[in-house]
Structure formats: structure tokens, C-alpha cells
Amino acid sequence: MASLTQVNDPAFEELRASIEEFAAGGRPVDRVIEAVCGCGNRRFLLVFDDEVGVAVRICTECETEAEIADSGEHFDDVDEVEQARCSCGNEEFTAATGFALDAQGEVRWVSVGLRCTHDGLAGVYVDWKIDYLPSQHLLGNA
């Protein structure tokens, strides 16, 4: 489950800014949603495949898995997932998902950003295009 974060959180603001700067597919990011597990934890591992465009967050506290955007629909197309790892070697992150929307509010692009819990390095680890409608429901899978 995801929720919006308070704007005053400097760590989230840094992650949000890195997702917005990345502008996947050349599209401006309209909405960034911080990942928060149902248990309240904000630290995750992430497995992903950049070729297919899928990502799954794993809570470091309760080990609940959350498929991001439409990842659950495409996971069968993946040969092998990669685990996100910071350049410092850490594999634990705070996470947020950025969404580029069209004029009708439909999702056109998804960007998954991570911020290392060890050194604070933030960036987009995986992004993919959404080329079908309707797609607004994907905003609930951040």
C-alpha cells in the first residue's frame, strides 16, 4: 500500500526531485507517491526487470511483496529479475513511484525511484511506458 508523504520530509523531497529530473520517456512526472508498507515500514528491497518493465517491492520488516503499477500483469514475461543495489553495496532503500499522466489523467509512464538507506544516493532504477487505456487504476499500485 502506498501513501502520499508530507512535503517537509527532506529525504523524500530528494527522492521526488531525482524522479522528476529523470523524466522517463521525456515526459514530465505529474505525481510521485512514496512507498509505505501496510505495517508502516518505509524500507524495502526491490527486484525488477528493466527489459519487461516490472518491479516488486519487498518490505524489510514484514517481508510483504508489492507489485508496482502493472508489474503483476507482466511478471510471467520475465526470465530473471535483478535485485536493486546501491553503488555502496547496500540493498535497502526508501522508495517512491513517479507517474507521467496524459491530459485525461491516464498513466503514460512509470518510474520507480530508490534512495539508499546507507548513503542517501537517490535515483530511478527502472521505468516503463504504459501504452494502454484505461490506466488510472495504476496510481493505486505505487
Key terms for this structure?
mainly beta, 142 residues, five-stranded antiparallel beta sheet, disordered N terminus, four-stranded antiparallel beta sheet
Describe this protein's structure.
With 142 residues, this protein is mainly β. It is built from two helices and nine strands; from the N terminus they run βαββββαββββ. The chain has helices at 10-22, 71-74; strands at residues 2-3, 31-35, 44-49, 54-59, 65-67, 82-83, 93-101, 107-116, 122-129. β7 and β8 (107-116) form a beta hairpin.
Topology:
Elements: E1 2-3, H1 10-22, E2 31-35, E3 44-49, E4 54-59, E5 65-67, H2 71-74, E6 82-83, E7 93-101, E8 107-116, E9 122-129
Summarize the structure.
The chain contains 2 helices and 9 strands, in the order βαββββαββββ. The protein is mainly β and 142 residues long.
